[in-house]
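User:
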Amino acid sequence: MRNEQPSQPLSPENNQSPPESSLEPAPPPAAEEEATKKPRPKQPPAMRAGLAVVAGRTAGAISRRLHLGGGTSIVGVVAQRVYPDIIEHLATELEHGSIMVTGTNGKTTTSSFIAAILRDDGLRVWRNREGSNLVGGVASSLVIRAQPNGHLRRAGQAISILEVDEAALPQVVHSIPPRVVVFTNLFRDQLDRYGEVDSVVTKWKEAIAQLPDTTILVLNADDPAIAQLGDSFAGRILYYGIEDLSLNDETTGPETERHQVIDTRACSNCGSEYEYTMHFYSHMGHYRCANCGKQRPTPDVRVTHVQTDTFDRIRIQLVSDEEQREVIVPLPGLYNIYNALAAATVSMALGIDWEPIISGIEQSKPVFGRGERIQADGKTMRLLLAKNPTGFNEVLRTLFADGLPRHLLFVLNDNIADGQDISWIWDVDFERALGQTETLVVSGTRALDLALRLKYAGIDENNMSIIPAVRLRADKNISTAQQKRLKKKRGREVQPDESTERVYGLKNALDSALQQTPAGETLFVVPTYTGLLEVHRELEQRGFTPHYWEGRDA
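Assistant: Predicted structure:
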């Protein structure tokens, strides 16, 4: 592999005090005694880092012991409390630097593709898949791989791939100067947390302004909100995009575009509306501003032909520097073609040859909730996360592309991590599902809202099983016996002294959906983010799949 960046050694702190001047007057008696005391030396960075590592990993172990989760994110949170600079301290020891992946959709799958390619090229790869993609999760990914002496294990002979939340990017790049940053796409998502897409662009521009010119930007040329990020960057930029004319849906007509969500319409230079010569979905395509002439950048890496063999086998022609290779993407949907294309572009930015790129993509497995396949009681479950209108639209388009009716379980939650404003479901093209459902179960904390939206889409409510998930908290104002009777009435008996919030109904919804799915067939589960966590937790408890945090570095 080429372009490797050696790690930079840590500089020891200079703890020596300046010599006192002989011309200074003698201190008064009270101060003389104080002056004879030796100053307390500062703790060396490695010692502080070691304490932070021990504290963080201990907190994680206690969390797992008490069954409070995977004990992963808390590792970084506690370590940062002990030593706020723990991220910077450990990141400098990574021999091959860090790759950061951010964007609205596709971060996890793109990171997985990149990891598979780099491993096939012979590198040791570390990822933050154990924790979150916020700052605490990034810290966890390093602390988990550190030793009590405050240094990374195996002298940091690895490259890290960090999936980074859109809003957290400025803070993360301030702590870790990345070798490559890839931006996948930008869509409206969790308005109560992120605001409109312009707010996210502003944060990303702040992050890019902090980057050294040695960093490489990898940008999606087909997304005008992403492509504009390269306008003021002085370093190297690689663009990627799709150029297969058969994917153009510009001629499909207004009826099929009634729920097409266009989140970026205006030119970033002059504010005029973009015109499209090719349109793939949402605002993704080939665009140009007729007023000022700003247009889609020419991709350095591009897909020229796409052929779908089966639901999760897509054959693409990948071109770079006029060299063309066929690659099989083992995941469904146009969005996963973009994810594979982004991963290939990152790899080429690092100077990796074609062979690891092809083998890494083709041998990749679906990651947590992104097309993941789980066997349950003689049936196959496919988990397809959908957390915003564009993502849900593309999942529906993928599900019904071949015209086969599907067994479906939709889970809509409105927890903090999902976004509490669920009005976006009215921008989803649920009309696609009309006449395409063999069985349909609707659950989640906002199941009734989703059922109403499906009814307006034309789906008969008698053809849905609606099983809401109800939040239930222990109430200190009623007796333990009353709490127990209430919990039993709502479908599941728990211990009388249980005081944490629990969610009821999802277990019954999963049972119902599996019972309605014949043996040997597939149940497609389409949840929002916390719905995915709840479904996965239930499947873990039934022994159908391991805990999602139990993956290890290869």
